[in-house]
């Protein structure tokens, strides 16, 4: 066992000393994919295929993603599974039959993953329902929720050189401890899978709950960590206008004096800023993260596109510049509008997390940036069929 909160306990007093230390060294490339522009297939590319499933990762590979982005939950019996939501939502999955006759937990839809076993989850059909917000999704009826190990096994078949990169998120709830397992369980169980895969050196571990990033670094300092952030998990903010370049006025988008349960005890107003974006970058550096992964858009923006009047970004030029000054890479999420991609590329972000990796990849290539190759479709689909059949046995 390890002490996941040891660093957190002393963090407030160490913040300024950490920020004053030399800029951390750039990430070292362990495979050729590290030298390519990082187009990340969010949940495998949920704009194109049902999310966080073997089919979605298959099409992410076929579409030429550099990185497969995915989420992890922990089942009641301790298995690391690939799924985004804390609970099984009826919009994405449907019940079939109980895991065993008379199971009092049945039906399983509507229940938390932490309260269901892997055997119970295996009965769910999570491939038949096309999401209303993604009308072009391919569906794969009968698709099951996979374990993280099963996803690694499938991708190893489709990617025999083990070149693809990974961005794996711990879906822990920092506000409601009864909905998910805690920090130690997530970090220990995920790392147990990480350390036994050929992809270990290609994994980024990301989370909105920064306690898990600190704990993972304590367990293995070689694991790349990425600090996810948006205004839902930072303290409540006040909003005023910002200019077209994302430079906020002195009164725009500033944190109040409260502490967020998601930021490992940090208060953004303890950092020098002067803008919120710079404070966020400084806070991510303070916990030793390698990457800052902010929401591209502000949830408070009245319009969705930077070409529209009154658009408000969450990721700003100043945030990106400050993160780079501190030695952090910047990879915003979830970017599904090309005008936002254009803006972020102009600000020199290091990667784009998107539901449409095939579309963003085209723009990246148009800009002259190096893009990942598309893996052979026939091989990927053959491996997909083999591994889907294996799950159904």
TrEMBL record:
Domain annotation GP-PDE: ranges: 37-364
InterPro entries referenced in this protein's UniProt entry, alphabetically: GP_PDE_dom (IPR030395), PLC-like_Pdiesterase_TIM-brl (IPR017946)
GO MF terms, alphabetically ordered: phosphoric diester hydrolase activity
GO biological process, one term: lipid metabolic process
Gene3D superfamilies: Phosphatidylinositol (PI) phosphodiesterase
One Pfam family from the record: GDPD
PANTHER family: GLYCEROPHOSPHODIESTER PHOSPHODIESTERASE, GLYCEROPHOSPHORYL DIESTER PHOSPHODIESTERASE
Name of the protein this chain belongs to: GP-PDE domain-containing protein
UniProt organism field: Pycnoporus cinnabarinus (Cinnabar-red polypore)
């Amino acid at each position: 066992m390890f002490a996941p909160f040891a660093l957190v306990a002393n963090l407030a007093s160490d913040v300024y000393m950490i920020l004053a230390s030399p800029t951390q060294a750039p990430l070292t490339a362990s495979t050729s994919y590290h030298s390519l522009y990082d187009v990340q297939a969010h949940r495998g590319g949920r704009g194109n295929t049902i999310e966080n499933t073997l089919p979605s990762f298959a099409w992410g590979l076929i579409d030429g993603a550099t990185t497969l982005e995915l989420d992890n939950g922990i089942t009641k019996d301790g298995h690391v599974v690939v799924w985004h939501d804390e609970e099984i939502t009826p919009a994405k999955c449907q019940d079939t039959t109980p895991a065993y006759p008379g199971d009092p937990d049945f039906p399983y839809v509507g229940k938390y993953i932490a309260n269901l076993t892997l055997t119970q989850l295996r009965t769910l059909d999570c491939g038949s329902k096309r999401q209303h917000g993604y009308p072009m999704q391919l569906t794969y009826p009968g698709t099951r929720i996979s374990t993280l190990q099963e996803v690694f096994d499938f991708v190893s078949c489709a990617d025999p050189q083990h070149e693809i990169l990974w961005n794996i998120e711990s879906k822990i709830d920092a506000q409601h401890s009864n909905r998910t397992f805690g920090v130690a369980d997530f970090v220990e169980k995920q790392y147990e899978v990480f350390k036994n895969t050929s992809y270990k050196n290609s994994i980024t571990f990301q989370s909105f709950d920064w306690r898990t990033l600190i704990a993972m670094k304590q367990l293995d300092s070689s694991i790349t960590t990425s600090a996810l952030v948006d205004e839902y998990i930072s303290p409540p903010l006040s909003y005023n206008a910002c200019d077209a370049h994302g430079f906020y006025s002195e009164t725009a988008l500033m944190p109040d004096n409260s502490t967020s349960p998601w930021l490992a005890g940090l208060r953004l107003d303890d950092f020098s800023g002067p803008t919120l974006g710079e404070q966020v970058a400084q806070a991510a550096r303070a916990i030793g993260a390698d990457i800052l992964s902010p929401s591209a858009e502000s949830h408070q923006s009245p319009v969705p596109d930077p070409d529209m009047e009154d658009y408000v970004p969450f990721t700003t030029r100043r945030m990106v510049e400050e993160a780079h000054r501190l030695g952090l890479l910047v990879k915003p999420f979830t970017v599904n509008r090309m005008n936002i991609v254009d803006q972020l590329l102009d600000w020199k972000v290091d990667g784009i997390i998107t539901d449409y990796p095939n579309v963003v990849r085209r723009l990246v290539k148009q800009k002259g940036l190096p893009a990942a190759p598309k893996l052979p479709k026939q091989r990927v689909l053959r491996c997909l069929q083999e591994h889907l059949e294996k799950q159904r046995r």
